[in-house]
Amino acid sequence: MILLQLAIGVLAALILWGFIKLTFQLMLWFIGIVVVVSFLIPGALLFLSGLMFISIGMLATLGVLYIIGAFRH
Fold first, then answer.
1. Phi and psi at residue 48, in whole multiples of 5°?
2. For the segment 15-43, what is each residue's pLDDT rounded down to a tens digit?
3. Is 38 exposed, middle or buried (0-12, 13-18, 19+ CB in 10 A)?
4. Residues 11, 68: Cα–Cα separation, whole Å
5. Within a 10 A sphere around the Cβ of 53, how many other Cβ atoms?
6. I want to staple 48 with a disulfide (CB 3.0 to 4.6 A). Which of 20, 29, 34, 40 is the partner?
7. What is the 3 state secondary structure string of the chain?
8. How confident is the model at residue 73, as a pLDDT?
């Protein structure tokens, strides 16, 4: 039983690490695209920075909810 719980914990950690890595890579690509588009369309910087702010806020909220959920039993 303990080995099963340990295996599930390792699997959950690997899935979570993959999600964090994917999210970080997507955020870096998104920032790069925003910079390129802001050079091409000067007025789009305000709109795209607002979208980035919303995306970062949603990720932060998801992280806080995940941490809270981990301590609930």
1. -70, -35
2. 888 887 888 788 788 878 877 877 888 77
3. middle
4. 20
5. 10
6. 34
7. CHHHHHHHHHHHHHHHHHHHHHHHHHHHHHHHHHHHHHHHCCCHHHHHHHHHHHHHHHHHHHHHHHHHHHHCC
8. 63
